[in-house]
Design a protein that fits this description.
single chain, alpha+beta, Outer membrane efflux proteins (OEP), four-stranded antiparallel β-sheet, two-stranded parallel ribbon
């Protein structure tokens, strides 16, 4: 039995000891920098933003003319048969004629009912929408990575607590074994101490697995090549921010919340769609011009070669008189879309108010729980210290000692949960108010 226990402790110690030659030390700021540089989702959304920026040009909107250069060559070979009025017939075979041309053509829409202007404004708004989408993705990423960072700290704290509990169980087992061998304790006490020790050992092993999953998840968010790479966190405690202000958070939410800004941008885009739909109510004016060279070669007739070099130009003015009432239908639909976007904006504003209220209540409640659990932990520690001394004196049963030990572990767990929950509420409130990036990455 003692050899088995020795091997077990040796295994636990080997697994849990930090390998300093392989570990790297990270704080939250460093994790965020690496993640924002390497994370695949962030890189994809930045490329999509670059596409929207590339599209926001006057040429893409139709402001600029198009210039085409073209050239070509064609030829024909044919036979002719002409019947003359005097009754004779003329035949010619293998007549060849060829044509070659090269030229420049310019087409330019001067006016299309302000549709070009509306299109350009839409492209610029889509560019800004791409920036907002990138910012929202970055905020979501920072919130996720921060939560995983603090979760890893919480799991490390829990592992320390479970190891401390295991050490207490080991000490209790030692005491029981000594008393059992001298006959002052029963075999039932020894078996109960052994069962509790094995239970605590199992908890430590399970927590090592949980800690490994949390570490892998953090490495995955940072897009490290080796997801099993062991990193050493600089932080060993979770310290919530106790000084958030609800009024300031709500003011920032109304001005800086990214989903709210995206909803406002969608309303504006629908209004621009309406402007483009109305542009079809106006006439359009288009200019065209060309400059080119054309050569024709003939095998029959009085002309052997004909060449033309010169300029052609024109203007087209048009107006759609009737299109089956499609313009009216499209404009009605766009107006309904604008109404829907405004309704979604109002719905989002109401949802943000509800989220702020719920998160603020959770934040304040968890802060109070955190304060309470810190006091409970002090009391639980004192209770256990008294219990172990009474147990050593034989004044307390093993079951009562175990209850005091479990109370201490539960108090430590509740404090850790309160710290983590408060931190998650803090992160959520900062994200809701649009302050997450500035808070964690002030530069």
């Amino acid at each position: 039995m003692k050899q088995i226990l020795y091997l077990f402790f040796l295994t636990i110690t080997f697994v849990s000891l930090p390998v300093f030659s392989q570990e790297k030390e990270f704080d939250l700021h460093k994790c965020l920098e690496i993640g924002l540089e390497k994370n695949y989702s962030i890189r994809i959304i930045r490329n999509e933003q670059a596409i929207s920026e590339n599209n926001a040009t006057p040429g893409n909107a139709g402001y600029l003319p198009t210039v085409d250069m073209n050239g070509g060559f064609s030829g024909t070979v044919y036979d002719t048969r002409n019947k003359l009025t005097d009754g004779t017939t003329e035949k010619t075979t293998g007549v060849n004629s060829e044509t070659a041309n090269v030229g420049l053509n310019v087409n330019w829409t001067i006016f299309d009912g302000f549709g070009i202007q509306a299109t350009y404004e839409t492209l610029k708004e889509l560019k800004q929408l791409g920036e907002l989408n990138t910012r929202m993705a970055i905020e979501d990423f920072i919130a996720s990575l921060s939560a995983e960072y603090y979760n890893l700290i919480r799991q490390k704290i829990r592992l320390r607590n479970l190891k401390a509990t295991l050490a207490l169980s080991k000490e209790r087992l030692r005491i029981v074994e000594e008393r059992y061998f001298i006959g002052s304790m029963s075999r039932l006490d020894l078996q109960q101490a052994q069962v509790d020790f094995n239970s605590d050992s199992s908890n430590v092993l399970n927590q090592l697995e949980t800690l490994h999953r949390a570490s892998v998840q953090l490495n995955t968010l940072m897009a490290l090549e080796n997801v099993e790479e062991r990193i050493q966190l600089k932080d060993s405690l979770i310290i919530p921010n106790e000084f958030l202000d609800e009024a300031e958070l709500w003011h920032n939410t109304q001005t800086s919340n990214v989903p709210l800004q995206i909803a406002q941008k969608n309303v504006l885009l629908s209004e621009l769609d309406y402007r483009k739909a109305r542009s079809r109510n106006y006439p359009y004016v288009k200019l065209n011009a060309g400059y080119g060279y054309t050569a024709n070669w003939y095998e029959v007739g009085t002309t052997d070669l004909q060449q033309r070099l010169g300029l052609n130009y024109g203007v087209t003015i048009g107006f759609n008189l009737f299109d089956g009432f499609n313009r009216r239908r499209e404009q009605r639909n766009v107006r309904l879309q604008i109404e829907n976007k405004n309704l979604r904006l109002q719905e989002l504003d109401l949802s943000l108010r509800a989220d702020m209220s719920n998160l603020w209540m959770a934040y304040k409640n968890n802060l109070e729980l955190w304060t309470l659990e810190k006091e409970n932990l002090v009391a639980a520690q004192e209770n256990y210290d008294i219990a172990i001394e009474r147990y050593k004196l034989g004044d307390l049963s093993g079951i009562e000692l175990r209850e005091a030990q479990n109370s201490l572990l539960n108090a430590e767990e509740r404090r850790s949960i309160a710290e983590y929950s408060t931190k998650i509420c803090e992160i959520s409130l900062l994200q809701l108010s649009g302050q997450l990036v500035e808070y964690f990455l002030p530069e």
